[in-house]
Amino acid sequence: MYNLLKNFLFKMDAEKAHHFTTSSLRLINKLGLLGLIRRGMVGSVKNTATTVMGLRFRNGLGMAAGFDKNAEYLDELDKLGFGSVEIGTVTPMPQDGNPLPRLFRLPKDTGLINRMGFNNQGVEAAANRIRVFRKKRPASDLIIGGNIGKNKVTPNQDAHLDYEKCFVALYDLVDYFVVNVSSPNTPNLRELQDKEALGVIFQTLRNAQEQMKDKPGYRDVPLLVKISPDNSNEQIDDILNLVEQYHLAGIVATNTTIARDNLVTVASKVEEMGAGGLSGKPVQKRSDEVVSYIRQRNSEIVLIGVGGIKTGEDARNKMKLGANLVQVYSCFIYAGPRMISDITHAIH
């Protein structure tokens, strides 16, 4: 059934297809038919609870940041069976992102190239929607992560202030945070992975958190950082040292890559697509290597593995290499909802 739908969707522009799919999902949910869709297109979801970062995940499969940038589809993703959803990347102020077209499929490689550029409605819009979801579904055990970034117009020397604004606005609403300094689609953003710049961001967020400790109902919300697959081992070591120094909970490995190696898609077509981050199957090998390297260097921190996961075997292997949890996005577009069932059965 999904293959028929995919054939239709793949005739559309990639970004328009995404909006069509999410709008349809919302409508189906409003009509009370999402349960039928789940039974027919997802199948059984295996929920074997696991506790990570002091949080109870009903299963270890999450939707990665990028799919639900504005926290618009929490109810739908919850009902489909994901154990967690990472919203964002959100920035303090709304921004349109990069010019269209900015999302491209590589079907022969089961990959995507995107240069979205943190297009989102701003942190307050996301915060309001999470509040509505929490109020509407108080019994939901969906774990919500907040992926935070900086606005394009904010110079890097002030980036820590943007991260702080998002951190403060979402602190009482999300279950964990991810600092995104690794997207290749915001100019100079990856420079923030340098240890000096990253240290300023972490220190700023820790200072903000310290000021919240006297508030009623204070929770110690875990903080992670999302890193690039293009980092060298020496750069990863620097980040690991900062993670330990500032007592972060862990690392999300990995974001998209700027590499274009070993693709089946004709090189001229790839070149026409232009700049952007490559995700899906082409990033799997390097993502796995990064997960393995980090786990060998540090046996304690939390690792969320993302990159190239399409099957239950892919997810299980990522966990064997050291991931505590896994996330999907790009391959979800190719495999469809059935992967939720396949993966949750494979990893528990």
Structure description:
- This protein has one domain: TIM Barrel, CATH 3.20.20.70.
- Helix content is 41%, strand content 16%.
- It has 13 helices and 13 strands.
- The protein has helices at 2-9, 14-30, 34-42, 74-80, 123-136, 159-170, 195-212, 233-245, 267-273, 284-297, 312-320, 330-335, 338-346; strands at 50-52, 55-57, 61-63, 84-90, 103-106, 111-114, 143-148, 176-180, 223-227, 250-253, 277-280, 302-306, 325-328.
- It has an eight-stranded parallel barrel, surrounded by five helices. Strands 5-6-11 form a three-stranded antiparallel sheet, with no helix packed on it.
- Strand 1 (50-52) and strand 2 (55-57) form a beta hairpin.
- It starts with a helix and ends with a helix.
- The mean pLDDT is 97.
Quick summary of this structure?
The protein has 13 helices and 13 strands. It is of the alpha/beta class.
Rg value: 19 Å
Largest sheet: 8 strands, parallel, barrel
Count of alpha/pi helices: 13
Low-confidence stretches: none
Helix/strand order, N-terminal first: HHHEEEHEEEHEHEHEHEHEHEHEHH
The secondary structure category is alpha/beta
Helix content: 40-55%
Q: Name the CATH superfamily classification.
A: Aldolase class I
What is the top-level CATH class? Alpha Beta
DSSP summary, beta strand count? 13
- What is the CA-CA span between the terminal residues? 26 Å
Q: What proportion of the residues form beta strands (DSSP E)?
A: 15-25%
Average residue-wise pLDDT: 97
Which fold name corresponds to the CATH topology? TIM Barrel
Identify the strand order in the major beta sheet.
3-4-7-8-9-10-12-13
Architecture, CATH level 2?
Answer: Alpha-Beta Barrel
Shape: globular
Q: Compute the number of structural domains.
A: 1
